[in-house]
Amino acid sequence: MSRTPLPPAIKFVLATTDPQKIPVTVLSRCLQLNLKRLLPGQIFTQMQGILKQEQIEAEPQALQLLARAADGSMRDGLSLLDQAIVYGAGKVTADDVNAMLGTVAQRSVEDILNALADSDAQAILDKVGEIANVQPDFSLLLQQVLQILHRIALAKTVPQAIAEDEPERERLLELAQLLSAEEVQLYYQIAIHGRDEINLAPDEYAGFTMTLLRMLAFKPEKEMARQIPAVQASVVQPIEKPITAKPAVATGSPVITGKPDWTVLLSQLNV
User: Fold this and answer.
1) Coil, strand or helix at 133
2) CA 256 – CA 30 distance, rounded (Å)
């Protein structure tokens, strides 16, 4: 009876997203390889390559939505891609992906930011009312607002960070022109706090609309910012020739030079 020879060594591979739960005695005997989270662009490129080999039609915007929803995990991204293919009956479109993920089309969120740039509260409430009929998850909607504000900040500071072939590039650059850097940072900070406090609101609709109204209330005054330097320039005039005047010295008062003699000074005061 022949026996299969044993291998010279056996290697165990432990894959986990929470290494803190592994006992320390095991971790001390393991070679740890920490894998980095993938960027949305890397997941997008991988998805494009897979669909090209499988000859499946897909809209670039739909793949961008899936890449961002993967949250840095290629495994989750491929799972979402499989769901999108089944949901779209062999095609991957942006509308189907938005419906599958329960997200609002990016154009709707961009319209809200456009109304913020115009300080049009009525347009903001009208757009939120339209979105409420489609997407009642306003916490997720705030997350979309944060994502677009982040990309607008990149478009303002480093336009090269937005790919040339990205379908949303022109729209993001337009919003970057409408919103100042101060407004983008302020809106981002308010949205962060609004997302943390939305569960404390009477309902999510009230929490979301109050977050947007807070953005309007604390919006920097552009006109005032332009007027202040002009006012300062008209009020503050440079002095061409300094005016110097010698202090008047009363007759009979002692002129003190150097360290004063307080005994003599007190005797001369008429107190």
Assistant:
1) coil
2) 85
Given a contact cutoff of 8 angstroms between Cβ atoms, the answer to whether 205 and 135 are in contact is no
Nearest to 37 by CA among 83, 4, 77: 77
- Please give the structure tokens belonging to residue 76: 């989750």
Q: Give the residues of the chain that fall short of pLDDT 70.
A: 1-2, 105, 135-136, 165, 167, 222-259, 271
Contacts made by residues 98-107, CB under 8 angstroms, sequence distance 24+: 98/65, 101/65, 101/69, 102/135, 102/137, 102/140, 103/65, 103/69, 103/135, 103/140, 103/144, 104/131, 104/134, 104/135, 104/141, 104/144, 106/61, 106/144, 106/148, 106/168, 107/171
58 forms beta bridges with 92
Predicted pLDDT of residue 257: 56
Q: In this predicted structure, what is the pLDDT of residue 242?
A: 53
The identity of residue 196, as a single letter, is: D
Contact yes or no for 183/189 (Cβ under 8 A): no
Distance CA 145, CA 153 (A): 12
**Paired tokens of 206:** 């009230």
Q: What's the pLDDT score for residue 64?
A: 86
